[in-house]
Write a structure and sequence with these properties.
Layout (H helix, E strand, L loop, with lengths): L1 H21 L1 H5 L5 H32 L2 H21 L3 H4 L2 H30 L6 H30 L1 H8 L1 H5 L2 H13 L4 H7 L8 H8 L1 H32 L4 H29 L1 H23 L4 H28 L6 H18 L1 H12 L3 H20 L13
Length: 415
């Protein structure tokens, strides 16, 4: 259930990024310079990330107070409704400046929703898991990310190929957003069939638990929140550079066919689909920290080769470059759910894990496409983006090094 909900929720969040790279600049910001329009589209993309920590606070509070299931279901409802409304939104040509304003509002609602979804999906997976398999079980909601990338980019690829550019720009781009109505059905199903986790049921019976889990976790686990956020910066920032900025860079700067970049992104995501659970399983054998740290160092090592390969304009080498970046990313994303869950005690786990994840998302992924596009405009070279990716890798490597190991394979204890 956590995999299905996570896949559709991330699909909803990712199609906005793909649309921002391909069409939103002309549909909602047509009266400005093309580069400024791209920045405006990426800014609307970033707004969703700014809302994510707020969503983490809101859903984290309710997830620790009234249950993982109820918070997750509410987040799924909000995401399904807001994404579907993007597909129904009139463009700038129809209602003028009201169109981009409404687009920003709906993107904020998406951010609020995804701010709570991740924590709920991850905790339902890890808190039901056997102690020696939390890494593997926690990787299932993480698999929603590459699956969502494959589906979202695949749908855009099929629509553009089947409809042609004119029809796609006129109305075809709306179809992926309208398909998000299915997430509401998933939320209804989860509400009817899902039970809360044993860990929350135990917390629920504790008469000493605080009324404000968010304030409690900020007081009791400030270092864990900061290190979790720092350790996520390169994961999220690198991910959105590989799937959002690379798409814009390849199609608008290198003037490659959109299909070339979409095939590279989808192909690398298929491989990541296999790598994420493998790295998670490895973390159940050797610990979370060494696997995560290896991924951070890998990000540093591939920061330049990724864009050297993309700059060749070869479909195969673009795929290889994105695969290198994705493999390093998967080494961190695989064990991350278990790592973040194990950093916090059960009574504040939803709040703490969500805050660490979503603060890192703002500092990393939310601004990554905008910063990368601005760096290229200022320098005229992809090397500037590689330096940016390398810097994020250093921050994450340092944070991962400072995080205490949360799992000892020979002495596993229940969550």
């Amino acid at each position: 259930m956590s995999l299905i909900g996570s896949t559709i929720e991330w699909y909803d969040f990712f199609i906005y990024g793909t649309a921002a790279a391909l069409v939103l600049n002309t549909a909602f910001f047509p009266s400005v310079d093309p580069f400024v329009g791209t920045l405006a589209a990426f800014s609307s993309f970033a707004v969703g990330f700014i809302a994510r920590p707020i969503g983490g606070i809101i859903w984290g509070h309710f997830g620790d107070r009234i249950g993982r299931k109820k918070a997750l279901v509410a987040a799924l409802f909000l995401m399904g409704a807001s994404t579907t409304l993007v597909g129904l939104l009139p463009t700038y040509a129809s209602i003028g400046v009201a169109a981009p304003i409404l687009l920003f509002v709906l993107r904020i609602l998406q951010g609020l929703a995804v701010g709570g979804q991740w924590g709920g999906a991850v905790l339902i997976a890890t808190e039901y898991a056997p102690a020696n398999r939390r890494g593997f079980y926690g990787s299932f909601p993480q698999l929603g990310v590459p699956i969502a990338v494959i589906i979202s980019n695949g749908i855009f690829l099929l629509l553009e190929a089947g409809l042609g550019e004119e029809a796609f720009l006129a109305w075809g781009w709306r179809v992926p957003f309208l398909l998000s109505v299915f997430l509401i059905g998933v939320a209804i199903y989860a509400q009817r069939t899902l039970e809360d986790t044993p860990a929350f049921k135990a917390v629920e019976q504790d008469p000493s638990r605080r009324r404000s889990p968010v304030l409690q976790v900020l007081r009791s686990h400030p270092k864990a929140i900061l290190l979790a956020a720092g350790s996520f910066i390169a994961v999220n920032g690198g991910f959105y550079i590989f799937i959002i900025y690379a798409l814009s860079y390849g199609t608008k700067t290198l003037e490659l066919p959109e299909s070339t970049m979409l095939i590279g992104i989808v192909g690398s995501s298929v491989v990541n689909l296999a790598l994420i659970p493998l790295f998670a399983l490895l973390s159940d054998r050797v610990g979370r920290r060494p696997v995560y740290l290896a991924g951070a160092i890998g990000t540093i090592l591939v920061a330049f080769p990724v864009f050297w390969l993309i700059d060749t304009r070869s479909t195969f080498l673009i795929f290889l470059g994105l695969l290198l970046g994705g493999a390093a990313n998967s080494a961190m994303y695989g064990p991350q759910a278990a790592l973040f869950a194990e950093l916090f005690s059960p009574e504040v786990r939803y709040s703490g894990a969500s805050l660490g994840y979503q603060i890192g998302a703002v500092l990393g992924g939310g601004l990554a496409p905008l910063i990368a596009a601005s760096l290229y405009e200022a320098t005229g070279t992809s090397a500037s983006t590689s330096w940016y990716l390398l810097a994020m890798g250093v921050v994450t490597a340092v944070s991962a090094y400072l995080i205490a190991e949360t799992y000892k394979p020979k002495d596993a204890t229940a969550v």
